[in-house]
Fold this sequence. Notes:
Elements: E1 2-5, E2 8-9, E3 12-16, E4 20-22, E5 28-30, H1 32-43, E6 51-55, E7 60-61, E8 67-74, E9 77-85, E10 92-96, E11 100-102, H2 103-118, E12 123-126, E13 131-133, E14 139-145, E15 151-158, E16 164-169
Antiparallel strand pairs: 1-16, 2-11, 3-10, 4-5, 5-7, 6-8, 8-9, 9-10, 11-13, 12-14, 14-15, 15-16
Amino acid sequence: MTRITARVVTSTVGIVGLLLTMGCAADPTLDAASLEQVLPAQIVPDHPEVVTNVQCPTPIEMSAGISVVCTAEVGGDPVTMTVTQLDDVGSVTAELDQPLFDVEASADVLAAQLTDDLAIATTIVCVGPAVRVLDVGEVLSCVASDPSGRSRPLFVTIVDEAGTLDMKLG
């Protein structure tokens, strides 16, 4: 069994543009529907399609420092995120309350390790979403293939929250 450390997706996402809706001139609110639409690309920029069912509370008062908790699913698993307003014009940042695991990037790291260990170019493809909630102890089903078309099952276990992986060829 080989142990390596792979990539855990950071849990803080950048500033999401200006999301302003005017209820009335004296009572501006953030547009929750717009926020729900832009968060997937902010949370997982390379694979926004894995982020679904985003829901934020309404109304969201427009004021610097105000935070709300939004919910979503990443790869089918529930997540929560804290969305905090940075100013009075609708700039926000979002922080996931659960770490995410980049399966696709980790498969590339594993493939490089196998290529070095076996001296045979190897590619790895894993079943399921490209990014998912980090679940220590989860076993990923993957397939390792070489250029001649030979394939072998590969079982990858997530060992800890740092993204340490154990891999075992089947």
